[in-house]
Automatic annotation (TrEMBL):
A Gene Ontology cellular-component term: cytosol
One Gene Ontology biological process: lysine biosynthetic process via diaminopimelate
Protein family (similarity comment): Belongs to the diaminopimelate epimerase family.
Keyword field: Isomerase
Record-given protein name: Diaminopimelate epimerase
Length: 294
């Protein structure tokens, strides 16, 4: 079965999007087979390769599954990819997008053709569950790594993120930091994040992308960590940089454009966090999906 798909990414977290309402995709795959299809589509050896699969049905109903076939009802990164596709395909009108899931609906505001925003909710301290506010100062945990002792802030905002400032040569030892975070929290899926303030409203970060909302959650956690440390304002641009911290001049080159790697993050006075960004296309194509037997 040849199924038409789009591959998009949000902060490097990639998704395969299948619009089941397309005429060419009619009756190729039924909802009861979405989980099995996601495993095939996301396989990096035998499929397209992605973190998750997005299935778009009529009336903007969205079903999102990870590469193991588990459904996720709140994939922020996936929503930004879906919003971009819905806008570009002309499936929405007005100033908002209503994304429907099997359990609730989410309101996405359209800022521009390349920027969509929504409310992520209130940030919590990852381990204690304490609600953060801007006057708290950082709640730090100490990890001992091969590169030395690291103090980091654990933040929960949809997903868990463990954030540390870049210091000494930590930017070059991200894998050491990530490994230590994983081993320190064996029963939790935690995004390891290293951040570096460039200006009061610009942050550079690296993240492990441990979940389907990892890019949005990591960008938000990075800003919160920096605000609590007194290094950033409550509104700024967080940029995910895969190559470490050697490309700072990119911000000032005069050639900056949306790449799906950056997110505008605002920590509002009501303590909620608003994120704005967009999914970006990687490629599209036809995938020969095997016929599923009941």
């Amino acid at each position: 079965m040849g199924i038409h798909f789009y591959k998009l990414h949000c902060g490097g977290n990639s998704f395969v999007l299948v619009d089941t309402t397309e005429k060419s995709n009619n009756n190729i795959i039924q909802p009861e087979n979405f989980a099995r299809a996601s495993i095939k589509l996301c396989s990096r050896k035998f499929g397209i390769g992605a973190r998750g699969a997005i299935f778009l049905l009529k009336d903007n109903l969205v079903r999102i599954f990870d590469g193991k076939g588990n459904e996720d009802f709140k994939s922020w990164d996936g929503w930004l990819c879906t919003s971009r596709y819905l806008f570009d395909s002309g499936k929405i009108s007005g100033k908002n997008i209503i994304i429907k899931t099997p359990v609730y609906n989410e309101l996405i505001q359209i800022i521009s053709s390349r920027a969509f925003s929504f409310d992520l909710g209130t940030p919590f301290q990852m381990e204690s569950g304490k609600v953060f506010n801007e006057n708290d100062g950082q709640v730090l945990t100490t990890l001992n790594t091969e590169s030395g002792t690291i103090s980091a802030a654990g933040i929960h905002l949809g997903e868990d993120a463990f954030c540390s400032f870049a210091s000494n040569n930590i930017g070059e030892n991200f894998e050491d930091f990530r490994t230590k975070v994983i081993s320190s929290f064996p029963n939790r899926k935690v995004n390891a994040v290293i951040l570096k303030p460039i200006t009061r409203n610009t942050l550079l970060l690296r993240t492990s992308r441990a979940g389907l909302s990892a890019a949005c959650a990591s960008a938000s956690a990075a800003l919160i960590t920096s605000v609590l440390a007194g290094s950033s304002d409550k509104e700024g641009l967080a940029v995910i940089n895969d190559s470490g911290f050697s490309n700072e001049a990119w911000f000032f080159s005069g050639e900056k454009k949306s790449t799906g790697q950056e997110f505008s993050v605002t920590w509002k006075d009501d303590n909620n966090v608003i994120i704005a960004g967009s999914g970006e296309y990687i490629f599209e194509g036809i995938f020969d999906l095997p016929k599923f037997k009941d």
